[in-house]
Automatic annotation (TrEMBL):
Superkingdom to which the source organism belongs: Bacteria
Protein name per its UniProtKB record: VOC family protein
InterPro entries registered for this protein in UniProt: Anthracycline_SecMetBiosynth, Glyas_Bleomycin-R_OHBP_Dase, Glyas_Fos-R_dOase_dom, VOC_core
SUPFAM superfamilies referenced in this protein's UniProt entry, alphabetically: Glyoxalase/Bleomycin resistance protein/Dihydroxybiphenyl dioxygenase
Pfam families documented for this protein: Glyoxalase
Lineage of the organism: Bacteria, Bacillati, Actinomycetota, Actinomycetes, Cryptosporangiales
PANTHER family tied to this protein: GLYOXALASE FAMILY PROTEIN, GLYOXALASE-RELATED
Domain named VOC: residues: 4-115
Length: 118
């Protein structure tokens, strides 16, 4: 039986660029940095940046990591856009919350998620 998520691995082409994005742009705490593997603390969830091997192909689709902004979602979108983040859509409202999709420095799908206000 699975009792929780231990970590999330994200494939990266350029470790330095990816570490800079996750640490400096998203504001996660870097806990380990190596040429082929780096780790960041995302509020108790370990995100591992895993260097791709040169022959590895990018895949369409796959996992999406959702981040919860500290402030309102609009403020975080403004902050990330000012840092050069590529948003692939606008904020959308749903009964289960609000999301906005964007890409990391390596082209992986990410999103901001804000729960519904009660």
């Amino acid at each position: 039986m699975a009792t929780g998520v231990a970590s999330v691995w994200v494939p990266v082409d350029d470790m330095d660029r990816a570490v800079t994005f996750y640490r400096d742009v998203l504001g996660l705490k870097l806990t380990d940095e190596q040429p082929q593997w780096s780790e960041l603390d995302a509020g108790g969830l370990m995100i591992g940046l895993n260097a791709r091997e040169g022959a590895s192909q990018h895949a369409d689709g796959g996992a999406v990591i959702s981040f919860r902004p500290d402030d309102d979602i609009e403020s975080e979108v403004d902050r990330l856009r000012a840092a050069g983040v590529n948003f692939t859509g606008e904020i959308s409202d749903h009964e289960w919350g609000r999301i906005v999709p964007f890409k990391d420095s390596e082209g992986n799908d990410l999103q901001l998620y804000a729960p519904p206000k009660n």
